[in-house]
Amino acid sequence: MGPVNALDTPDLDGDGCNDIVVASGIDASGSIGVIMSLGDDAFAFEAAFTTDAFEGCPASLATSDIDGDAIPDIVVGTGCIVTVGRVLALASGG
Ligand SMILES: [Ca+2]
Ligand SMILES: [Ca+2]
Question: 64: CA distance to ligand 1 center in Å?
Answer without folding.
Answer: 14
